[in-house]
Fold:
Amino acid sequence: MIFYFSGTGNSRWVATQLAAKTRDQAQDIATLKAVPALQQETQIGLVFPIYAWGAPEPVCAFAKTLPKTEAFTFAVCTCGEEAGYAMKKLAEIWPLRSCYSLVMPNNYILGADVDDEQTALRKIQKAEAEIRVLSEEILERKPVYRVQEGAMAAFKSGIVHFGFNRFARNTRAFYATNACNGCGLCAQSCPAGTITLSDGKPVWGKLCYQCLRCIHSCPQRAIQYGKSTENRGRYTLDRYLKNIGR
Ligand SMILES: Cc1cc2nc3c(=O)[nH]c(=O)nc-3n(C[C@H](O)[C@H](O)[C@H](O)COP(=O)(O)O)c2cc1C
Ligand code: SF4
Ligand code: SF4
Structure:
């Protein structure tokens, strides 16, 4: 079983491909009601995006519920650039035999703009080739640690990641502009279930994973986060692939 969490589709795409190549199933953590029985599983994988050099909080919470297992355990993270010690920290919660990072298009538009089309395509094509290799390694049950950690990983995955979870993950700066037509997609698809519609406009509650699905997926491009996102692009993998005809 391959469990995944994904804001804008990169990690879902990786999990789905991995599942197909290793004859397994991909399961979204955000829609799980309870952890399924895993006694018969020969492999258990986790796939997720990197948030501030760490694993997303719902992934860590889910990993804590996983049983000890004889199955081959592995994790694959997707990141715009580097993962720090995210995988080493996750392995402290749930032992991992193999860890990988895959560089994918960046969706952190609160900090920088989306990748240009060529950069995004180059990342996706490289990731596709890497997925072929790591699927074989997983099938061979080969223990591998191939993670792009980057510089100052201990600091970034320590204090910076702690600060992200403690202070950055709030919804105060989200708002919908007049372009919103009240379609309700943001409320239906928020993995934290934090968005409701009031008078046809989204209202954000307190819990937020900062996956940025709401802001990237809005068909009207109506969601903003403070002033930082007005002039930045939007990205979901599905839309990107459709735009380039794939
Ligand atoms: C809140 C947040 C923090 C992020 N932090 C990092 C980071 O520390 N390093 C990095 O390389 N990418 C970072 N990213 C980029 C994502 O990890 C990357 O785009 C990922 O592939 C998105 O996956 P998804 O489409 O499955 O959500 C961050 C994205 C978000 C939304
Ligand atoms: S997805 Fe966009 S258009 Fe639809 S309700 Fe949410 S903010 Fe409004
Ligand atoms: S409010 Fe937006 S960013 Fe926060 S968890 Fe929901 S979809 Fe993700």
The first strand starts at residue 2 and ends at 4. The CA atoms of residues 85 and 154 lie 6 Å apart. The two ends are 27 Å apart (CA to CA).
